[in-house]
Amino acid sequence: xxxxxxxxxxxxxxxxxxxxxxxxxxxxxxxxxxxxxxxxxxxxxxxxxxxxxxxxxxxxxxxxxxxxxxxxxxxxxxxxxxxxxxxxxxxxxxxxxxxxxxxxxxxxxxxxxxxxxxxxxxxxxxxxxxxxxxxxxxxxxxxxxxxxxxxxxxxxxxxxxxxxxxxxxxxxxxxxxxxxxxxxxxxxxxxxxxxxxxxxxxxxxxxxxxxxxxxxxxxxxxxxxxxxxxxxxxxxxxxxxxxxxxxxxxxxxxxxxxxx
Amino acid sequence: xxxxxxxxxxxxxxxxxxxxxxxxxxxxxxxxxxxxxxxxxxxxxxxxxxxxxxxxxxxxxxxxxxxxxxxxxxxxxxxxxxxxxxxxxxxxxxxxxxxxxxxxxxxxxxxxxxxxxxxxxxxxxxxxxxxxxxxxxxxxxxxxxxxxxxxxxxxxxxxxxxxxxxxxxxxxxxxxxxxxxxxxxxxxxxxxxxxxxxxxxxxxxxxxxxxxxxxxxxxxxxxxxxxxxxxxxxxxxxxxxxxxxxxxxxxxxxxxxxxxxxxxxxxxxxxxxxxxxxxxxxxxxxxxxxxxxxxxxxxxxxxxxxxxxxxxxxxxxxxxxxxxxxxxx
Lengths: 260, 329
Ligand SMILES: Cc1cc2nc3c(=O)[nH]c(=O)nc-3n(C[C@H](O)[C@H](O)[C@H](O)COP(=O)(O)OP(=O)(O)OC[C@H]3O[C@@H](n4cnc5c(N)ncnc54)[C@H](O)[C@@H]3O)c2cc1C
Ligand SMILES: Nc1ncnc2c1ncn2[C@@H]1O[C@H](COP(=O)(O)O)[C@@H](O)[C@H]1O
Prior knowledge:
heterodimer, A: alpha/beta, Rossmann fold, 2 domains, nine-stranded mixed sheet, two-stranded antiparallel sheet, 6 helices, 28% strand, B: alpha/beta, binds flavin-adenine dinucleotide, binds adenosine monophosphate
């Protein structure tokens, strides 16, 4: 079974966000990691390989720094990777990202395609579904479990008030929600092996994509500017013995904050 | 034809509040463009909800009522909604940022080769309309616009951000009944089973008050005391990831970066340290209360009110005090 996992690199979730003088996200000193939702997908992919055999291929669009994240996935157990690096991709929107991913993914002839239902940086939650539509493959979105059967799979999809089991035939796309698989820590052996695994570097030209068809000029959605939310000010610690403090709290919530 | 559409997702003959919030904002959006506000009702046994949509500001209600639309599946819903969009050519379509909206909107965006802005939290009306949404789990905000050729504009709307439309009794919308040949659609997703978690509680993302417990709760049984406080307040009960990882609470109640984002009027964090990933999910609450025995806990830095103390002492007293306060209110 060939499992393709779409993986993106992003900021560590601990990172504080600041803006540069030009009003862009300041990445100085920020640790870059595997997007946590992509990571759930990578882990699930490796679990499938361990159970059914086959291979796990990571597909990533990113700059050369993203290769660190790819090695991390390889250290976990992914077999090889394809990275699309092209300056023309800077400032591309999800529509272009999905179009480029589609070419890279389908060239691998996958049986299963996994990715995050959203990423923790853009949080756009649309790349994988756009990909499904472009590739004309069935998908199940926001899943916490996938059971593989003969030529088909049943995935547990999250609902607002529960879950449902959805069956699709393979190949299909599944997007990971937290809970799908708990990412493992790479072993020392895994880290050593990762360095030797195949990493194929492609440009848009290699995928037959015209670089002028992506980028900000072709974005369906344009970025106007970034701001930081007003920081929250710490309020007041209500002192005194617990019974008095608790009574004061309730009074404050009613009379001051007027929220109860 | 044109118009601003609200995809009025209904469940069990009711709308979640976010639908009324969408109608409230979509009215302004439509007025700004000088267009009509349409509500789109797709489902089974939904036609009778049309009047409610009219009362909440819809000029027209487009109804597709069919027993085979009782359950949501991507292919059927995307198929019929695409048909409606192609027939009536709306300028914008608003979906709730629910599990349905999250599934339907990206598929439609790609079918229509247009743009989609998810998790919308603000609109600024000017010569160019700007749409605001959080990125980096709310640590930054981005303002976006749609390219001139990206129509319809597709959006998913975060609950509890926009002001709900006020009902105007007797206001009526023109109802347009649409039908579709569902047999013509290929169905690739087959629903094998649905497991609903029956809960009498308000939805976490729609609640006015949320009380969440963390690792400090020590075991699943102790959450009962939070449930009791929640009952008095009509609140939803959330949890930190630590409490979810311990198996004390269901994952769907996790608040934070990899959980739900909530912005209630009042958020009470009990035995939660205030890790940055937890803050990402509740930072936009109007009022935050922290109860924690560690005075150095990060949560106090964002809390409007804090009590430093043992939660097992504080919560029972809090319950009593709330009972009294609300009885005398
Ligand atoms: C990629 C990633 C994503 C994450 N996503 C999320 C997320 O979505 N949501 C989330 O919550 N976390 C998330 N986390 C985890 C996060 O970093 C923290 O580990 C987690 O929030 C800690 O939960 P906690 O505050 O309940 O536990 P702890 O940090 O262990 O805090 C427990 C607190 O309880 C207090 N306490 C203990 N006993 C008592 C008592 N008797 N009375 C009063 N106070 C008491 C302690 O003083 C302490 O402050 C994520 C982490 C990563 C790496
Ligand atoms: N540049 C990228 N390279 C590879 N996969 C991506 C990329 N961007 C998004 N994805 C995948 O799509 C998921 C959802 O991302 P998004 O739609 O941007 O929130 C991610 O978790 C990845 O699995």
